[in-house]
Amino acid sequence: MKDKTILITAAGQGMGRASAIACANLGAKVIATDINTDALATLSAQHPAITTDYLDVRDGQAIIDIAARVGPLDGLFNCAGMVHNGTILEVSDEDWALSIDVNITSMMRMCRAFLPGMIERAKTTGSVPILNMASMASSIKGFPSRAVYGTTKAAVIGLTKSIAADFVAQGIRCNALCPGTVDTPSLRGRINSAPDPVQAEKNFIARQPMGRLATVDDLTPMITYLLSDASSYVTGQAFLVDGGVTI
Ligand code: NAD
Q: Where does the secretion signal sit in this chain (predicted)?
């Protein structure tokens, strides 16, 4: 990963932030993006190899602009995503459209904007990886009250395989990551906003056969592998790091 330029979305906190630090520790030049500028400021202060840029992944023009501004990448990690809680009887058309926009349309736009530069870069480096954040809650497994989320994360796997198939001969590798339940600020938010937070945390842990939530450090080895040359013969796959949920 040394001296490779890797852009990460939603890098202010959670797995995106941990990935930015892990990639920088391996020698990459990381462009960490998010809408939370305070979180970005603390991140760039933490590591000299991390530069930051405001990017709202729902803003199609901003995606085109940042692709033009930063130029060809050696790696792209589309990490941004949100969780809708509920069945299809509990989702409005507006909330459905919001999740589709944040979780999948933004990812397509990111790939579309950066692919031409990455294809050029692959001509000299051999292969360039894209990593898309999916989930075990997707086409892999259904979970209660994750109808919208599971639908969008299944679409992430479909998009990933399509990009992998379309651009494999041009040196683009595209894989998806499917984590189990990871202890991140947004998961804490979901736990704390439940009617009974203590029980909510127990319920999240209960669905993990290993008896604990994942930490971001459980995920970063797979993330850095898929964003590095170590995975140079790997493409079009969805990688579960789920603590045994889907055994
Ligand atoms: P998180 O949800 O705690 O943080 C998300 C980050 O996204 C925040 O820094 C926020 O500012 C940023 N963000 C929100 N809207 C944005 C936008 N429009 N543009 C750019 N950035 C935006 O982090 P997390 O829990 O690590 O989740 C990251 C990804 O991992 C998501 O795609 C999520 O669906 C997926 N995921 C999470 C879990 C889990 O248990 N935490 C499990 C599987 C998959």
A: none
191 lines ligand 1 (CB under 6 A): no
Helix (H) or strand (E) holding 131: strand 128-133
228 domain-assigned: yes
Query: Considering the domain boundaries, does residue 78 fall inside one?
Result: yes
Q: Is the same domain home to 130 and 58?
A: yes
Q: Would you say the ipTM is above 0.85?
A: yes
Query: How confident is the model over 112-137, as pLDDT tens digits?
Result: 999 999 999 999 999 999 999 999 99
Using a 6 Å cutoff on CB, does residue 160 contact ligand 1? no
Who contacts 40 (Cβ-Cβ below 8 Å, separation ≥6)?
11, 12, 32, 33, 34, 52, 53, 54
The atom number, within ligand 1, closest to the CA of 102 reads: 18
**Ligand 1 in contact with 39 (CB < 6 A)?**
yes
Residue closest by Cα to atom 13 of ligand 1: 10
Q: What is the pLDDT of residues 56-110, one digit of tens each?
A: 999 999 999 999 999 999 999 999 999 999 999 999 999 999 999 999 999 999 9
The domain of 201 spans: 183-213
Please report where in the chains the tokens 């990933």 appear, as a residue.
160
Which residue has the least CA distance to atom 3 on ligand 1? 186
CATH number at residue 101: 3.40.50.720
